[in-house]
Design a protein that fits this description.
alpha/beta, 9-stranded mixed sheet, 16 helices, disordered C terminus
C-alpha cells in the first residue's frame, strides 16, 4: 500500500469522517498525511467540528496503522479511494459517495451492467421462487447481481446468481472480516471468488444497525435498477428503492398478495410508480440491456507507456480538467501534459480547451447497452 492510501485507511477508522470531511481536509492540507498529523488548532482551522476533532485525535492515539495495513494484506482485502483510478464511476454520482472502499474479490468492467435484488429477510415460498427464477434468467445473460448478503431475499439472490454461473457483488454493513449473518460466511467466500465483497467500513467494524441503511445507497448506486421482491411497508429494502429513485434509477417491485404483510411495501411501490415485475425479460427491456459484449480490438490496446496508460485510464467519457488527472494519478503536471499530447496525437483523446480533456474511445474492452 502506498503512503497516500495509508492515511485514507487511517481516516476510515475515524467515526463520522466520510467523503465531505475528507474533501475538506484535502482542501485544507493538500494531502491526508498532513491532515492526520495536524494539531487541534489546524483541524479547527480546516473547518472540522469539535466532536470530529476529538474522534480524529482519539483514533490517532489508539490506531496501530501498520497493523491495520497488515490486516488488509493478510486477508487479501484491497483498498481503493475516491481518487483511485479504479474507483467505481457510478458511485461518483451518488449523494455521499464512500471515501474508501474495501474489496475482497474483483470488480470487473462488465459489472457496470448490474441489477440489485433486495427484499425481506422472511420471504414466502412465492418470494423465494420469484427471486430464484428472475435472478437466474438475468444472471445467465451476463448481468451482475448486487445485494446485501442479508438473510432471506439477499442470500437467495446471491446463491441464484452463483448457480447460474453469473457474477454477484455483496455490499456489507460491516467490515469484510465481520460477515453478518454468521451463517453466510461460506456464501460470502463463494461471492468473493465469483464476484466481490465490498464495504466502506474497514476490517474489524462490527455490523451495527445504522450501517445497513447507509450501505443501501451503494447497492442502488452500483446498479442500473433495483428489484424489490417482498418487503413490508417499513423495510430496509424500501430504503434501497428510495435511494434508487433519488439517483434516477428504475425500480421494479414484485406484485404480492394484498393480505400478506411482506407484500405491503412492494404493492405500495407499484402504486407510487415502480414497474410491476412480471418477467425477467421486462427488466432487460426497460433497462435497455440487450447483450453484454466484450470485444477484443488490437487497434485499441492500452498504451504501453506507464504514464500514458494511467492518464488514459483516469480519463472519462465526459470532459475532465487536468487538475483531476493530477489528483487521480500523482504524476507531475509536466508528465501529464506530455502524456496528454501523445495520447491526442494517437487519436485516443481530445483536448476541449481550457485544460479539459475527454476520452474518445474505449480501450481493449467495450460493452454495448442498446
Amino acid at each position: 500500500m502506498d503512503k497516500d492510501n495509508s492515511f485514507w485507511l487511517a481516516f476510515s477508522h475515524v467515526p463520522g469522517v466520510g467523503f465531505v470531511r475528507i474533501s475538506r481536509l484535502l482542501d485544507a492540507f493538500g494531502d491526508l498525511e498532513r491532515a492526520w498529523n495536524a494539531d487541534r488548532a489546524g483541524l479547527r482551522q480546516a473547518g472540522i467540528g469539535p466532536k470530529t476533532i476529538e474522534a480524529i485525535l482519539r483514533t490517532r492515539s489508539t490506531l496501530d496503522l501498520e497493523r491495520a495495513k497488515g490486516t488488509l494484506q493478510k486477508q487479501g482485502i484491497r483498498l481503493i479511494t475516491y481518487l483511485s483510478p479504479d474507483y467505481p464511476e457510478p458511485l461518483m454520482h451518488i449523494q455521499g459517495p464512500p471515501a474508501c472502499l474495501f474489496i475482497k474479490g474483483d470488480l470487473l468492467p462488465e459489472d457496470r451492467i448490474a441489477v440489485a435484488v433486495v427484499g425481506t429477510r422472511t420471504p414466502s415460498g412465492y418470494g423465494i421462487g420469484v427471486t430464484e427464477r428472475v435472478v437466474a434468467e438475468i444472471a445467465a445473460q451476463g448481468v451482475t447481481i448486487i445485494s446485501g448478503l442479508a438473510r432471506g431475499v439477499d442470500g437467495i439472490a446471491h446463491r441464484a446468481a452463483l448457480e447460474a454461473s453469473g457474477r454477484t457483488i455483496a455490499i456489507l454493513g460491516s467490515g469484510i472480516d465481520e460477515i453478518y449473518p454468521w451463517e453466510h460466511r461460506r456464501l460470502a467466500g463463494c461471492v468473493s471468488e465469483r464476484g466481490a465483497l465490498l464495504s466502506e467500513y474497514p476490517p474489524g467494524t462490527a455490523p451495527e444497525g445504522h450501517h445497513f441503511p447507509a450501505r443501501n445507497r451503494i447497492i442502488a448506486g452500483l446498479a442500473l435498477g433495483v428489484i424489490v421482491v417482498e418487503a413490508a411497508e417499513r423495510s430496509g429494502a424500501l430504503i434501497t428503492a428510495d435511494f434508487a429513485g433519488e439517483q434516477g434509477k428504475e425500480v421494479f417491485a414484485v406484485p404480492g398478495d394484498v393480505t400478506r404483510k411482506t407484500a405491503g411495501g412492494t404493492n405500495r411501490l407499484i402504486q407510487d410508480g415502480a414497474h410491476p415485475l412480471l418477467s425477467a425479460s421486462e427488466v432487460m427491456e426497460i433497462l435497455n440491456i440487450d447483450t453484454l459484449y466484450l470485444e477484443e480490438d488490437s487497434s485499441q490496446e492500452l498504451p504501453e507507456d506507464d504514464v500514458q496508460r494511467a492518464i488514459y485510464t483516469a480519463l472519462k467519457d465526459e470532459p475532465v480538467h487536468i487538475d483531476f488527472l493530477y489528483q487521480q494519478t500523482g504524476f507531475s503536471i509536466q508528465e501529464i501534459q506530455v502524456a496528454l499530447s501523445m495520447l491526442e496525437l494517437g487519436g485516443s483523446i481530445k483536448h476541449l480547451g481550457g485544460m479539459h480533456y475527454q476520452r474518445i474511445r474505449e480501450a481493449a474492452i467495450t460493452y454495448r447497452v442498446d
